[in-house]
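name: query_chain
kind: protein
chains: 1
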Amino acid sequence: MQWWRARSKGRQNSFQELRFGSSKIDTDLINRIERATGQKPHHFLRRGIFFSHRDMDQILDAYENKKSFYLYTGRGPSSQAMHVGHLIPFMFTKWLQEVFDVPLVIQLTDDEKYLWKDMTVEKAYEYAKENAKDIIACGFDINKTFIFSDLDYLGTSPGFYKNIVKVQKHVTFNQVKGIFGFTDSDCIGKISFPAIQAAPSFSSSFPQIFNGKENIQCLIPCAIDQDPYFRMTRDVAPRIGQPKPALLHSVFFPALQGAQTKMSASDPNSSIFLTDTPKQIKTKINKHAFSGGRDTIEEHRKYGGNCDVDVSFMYLTFFLEDDDRLEQLKQAYTSGELLTGELKKVLIETMQPLIAAHQERRKQVTDEVVKQFMTPRKLAFEF
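structure:
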């Protein structure tokens, strides 16, 4: 399983997940986050991109009573180059870190990629280091952020391994088969991996960060398809004396070809990659971005476009921060005033500087900077 994956019928599947006990992020909760932080809610919250939660009320209760928490998210490094969809959880997590002023741990599941993909351990670890550079380029505070590779950290932290073993003891083979669809032909590494993704949910996995303090609650921003891992984790937590992690779920990020198609790192035309040039970005959007427009200009002017399926508009929902501008584009496209080519032009003009700025920041991330982020250490915060 990847930390961030595009799936078909993403929004429909997302709301079906609410049946499993998560709660909708409603206006009341968004307003409460604004009151607690004193900051305008992130546009991912305002637009329903992060739409569902588990126990966010508890996080806010603790925060309002001067009790801190920590953030945990991750990345499955399946390739050297990340795409813009991979930025979504990190953009939001960076905002959470800033407005709540809390520490963050980022898990790079290179062990998972070795188990699931046709690659060597060395290649998986190399991808982890390269992906770490893109993550760092998002602007995380080095004094409050610990990034770790499973292949590195598991051998150096007794607390981390102890929690893995505790989770493993309390989850049966039948349970993981039911949750994750494992079969008798899957290697035992896959079967035991969910416990490794669960362990960072517990502060005792990071004694160097929390200075011996345990039972600090964790908040996990992630895509909705990661929820099965953490439903399992939340079920186990009370049985091993740990607080349940809270979660914030996002919708899926669509491939350029539309929500019904799968985004793939092996298909360079399925998304915009963080290594793309301005020319490549323009070509991809113009050639591959699925349109919600009509077959002819005459029909489009008469009937208007469909923003619900138009990928250019979907991408703007993620990356155009100006609410008023986005609403103007929606009305103009829906009425037929704005043509598909014109909407694509807006997206191109939005994505080109965004990617260029990311590339410039990434150039400043040296191997030494990566080493600093990935060195186990106490982080600068107060509990």
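note: Confidence is low (pLDDT under 50) at residues 1-17.
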